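Hey, resending since the last one bounced:
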Amino acid sequence: MSSAPHTSVRRDVEIQRKYYSDTASLYEAMQAHEGAVDPFSKDFVQSILRLFDVQSILDVGTATGRSLRDFRNALPGVFVCDVEPVAVLLQQGRAAGNLSDVGAL
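The structure tokens again:
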């Protein structure tokens, strides 16, 4: 079995992490045009979560944690957890106050 696919995936991950590390300080401004931050989309998703009485949320690829903060504010009592492999994005989120109560593993 060849190790080429594994090496290729590892290189792709490195490229992606470098991109997000290099643009972390601009991340929120760069993502502002995406639907997840518009009030209607946020309210819609939060309403569905309330409708189904969701007790926990896993935010995979949380980036700077803005949505994590929004979930915690809108859904008190719901366990909210995040995963983000790019440390610089988490640092940016902490600096913005999005992840003030989140510890690093």
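The chain has a mean pLDDT of 84.

Sorry for the duplicate.
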